[in-house]
Give the backbone structure.
Amino acid sequence: MSYLPDEWLFKNRLLQRQRRGKLYRLFFFASLVLAVVALVTLLLNVLNETVGLIAVRYEIAPETISDQPIDQLDNVRLAAILQEYAPRKLKVFVRDHLSVVDPSLFTSLPLSQALEGRNIPAGAETSTISDISDEVVLELLTRNLSTDQLRELVLTEVVGLEVLESWPATESLFNRAAIEERVAAEYPDAELQTHSWINSTFLSSPMSSVPAQAGIRTALLGSLWMLAITMAVAFPLGLGAAIYLQEYSSDNFFNRLIDTNIRNLAGVPSIIYGMLGLAIFVRALEPITSGSTFGVMDSNGRTILSAGLTMALLILPILIINAQEALRAVPRSLREASYGLGATQWQTIWNTVLPAAIPGILTGTILAMSRAVGETAPLIVIGASTFIVFDPNGPFSKFTALPIQIYQWTARPQDQFRDIAAAAIVILLVLLLTLNAAAIILRNRYSGKLA
Amino acid sequence: MTTQAPVFDKARLMTEARSINRARQDVNPLGKQPRIGEGLIKVFLLFCGVVSIFTTIGIAVVLIEQSLAFFTSGEVTLTEFFTSIKWQPQLGEFGILPLLNATIMTSLIAMLVAVPMGMGAAIYLSEYAHPKKRAVLKPILEILAGVPTVVYGYFALTFMTPLLRLILHADNVDIYNNASAGIVMGIMIIPTISSMSEDALSAVPRSLREASYGLGATRLETTLRVVLPAALSGVIAAIIVGISRAVGETMIVAIAAGAGPNFTFNPFQAAETMTGHIARISGGDLSYGSIDYNSIFAIGLTLFAMTMILNIISRAITTRYREVYQ
């Protein structure tokens, strides 16, 4: 009796098996393609919101204000328009855009303090804002604000630009007729414009409650400040720990504990780090992180310093693991050669191992940096401010960061905030892409040099 | 007599050198010098390593201390915390179940998306794809892993939710819902699972595959019956790490899953997860020491314990059950 199936049955079975193989292969490929499609959809969905048609309405037609188009006017002309059409609000503009102190103190302090660091006309330093004449106020505005900012003021305060509704790019392109119809019916006095939410005003303006005027200047600066503090703390600590674990430590219980511990820390959710930061840096170390031990009095512990330190703890495990890998890749022969020449252990590490490992270490560091830039949850927990119009001016200032701003804007129900959230996402992604591109270039340029 | 290969055993050489030096100290000026600088550097490096232990201790102490303050405040007992199905701090109701339930639900949905897709992608990359194709596709998956979670949150709210509402009709799907957050979380976790599983699959030696082909198995049969079982420990570890990421993920659920504890098993309803609740409560101005402030630490401790256990299991699986081939 034969156990082999007859030929027809065998061929039939084989065909079935092969068909099954093809089917599964299709499924495996499809899951990969779906992941890629998800990424592309995500990017397109963001880009789609950043540009599109908007319906705007003016209170005064721009032509009546000036015979030239507004975007060709210089500082002096723009300031003159402000004086003509909004004389009572000039000092408010100074407060909103130039003041470096708390709004409640602004009127009582002399200008040299209230506008510290700004370009103040001679003779006006000692007087308060209520004492100076309109001419001096105008002088202040023209000297300290950029043309873009002044134009924005003219557009919002005088012309009264108001964005009534906005549409994403796809709808604007393919459904323009319906949009035009809707604008004609709903807002007869409005004008339809193509608008890019990413523009120079968006990059250079601080936060605002009006979406069309809001910008990410303070958020971007906050993110950069935080990143600087994070790296200043985390880089030496992380590199030091990696060197210790890779070069010095023998295989005993204590060193294994450190190693296991670091790997476990890498898996702790970021929000837990936020709670650690809240309890330790914001609360327990408040005198230091708020700057009150250093004479900075106007702040609590929810500062850039706290955020930077929290973020440093968060990226430390990633940094250490990456740096360890880079050190491990340095061939043993290099170390032996150095020892053979009579170098001590530290001399070997400093002069031989580190130079060979530095490209790998930097690549890992940059990847850790991009993690820090995009991380949001810990910042929410330690209490990043959400509405800040002043630039952060040091480690002890309150701050907001790019991802916090995106979160805030996304969480609001109005469509236009979603648009600027998308614009902020594009900026964030560009920032991350730059960082990652730098890492890849480093890796490609130096990889395999020692092998 | 056996001859030993010359092994560079630094520790042994150092001890020997030390004893010789001790004997010759006064004769040989080139003997080992005390090097204070080197010692200091080593102490500093040791300190850097120990910072990570302090971090862990710090996390544990902070979470436990505040949670103790929460449980000893008299407002809530441990049993109530783990069994009550209401979380309403204003009414003094602190039952973690609604938050836990939403966390489990979003994580489950995420894993339903991420496990098949992540595994499928890993198998394709490791077993089917041409090296050139892999060189293009792998970095794309890495980009997916590098997108900040807040961006995924935006994607969930502005794309996935409208899509679900379009497919399933807007009446059945809340604007904030667990399903949308879970699906997008799954997309976020695909690269985690696929890259870890792919490493495990690639580590299976070629000889196993060849043997299977030699017996007449098709590529699919080889993959599913030989390679996958051989790499199973790594694959399971990857899935557990994925679950741990899903449980701890904050921004997607904070944006898209809903604000307000809600004990429901309907994924299309709004329900706040543990992380979402911590983010929302701490986003406001909390007064230190209040019951609200302490309550988020009790949630945090639960979360920390959950992710820690998952990570430890995953590491134990990889180290204990790792198949070592040659």
Remarks:
- Residues 36-72 of chain B form one domain.
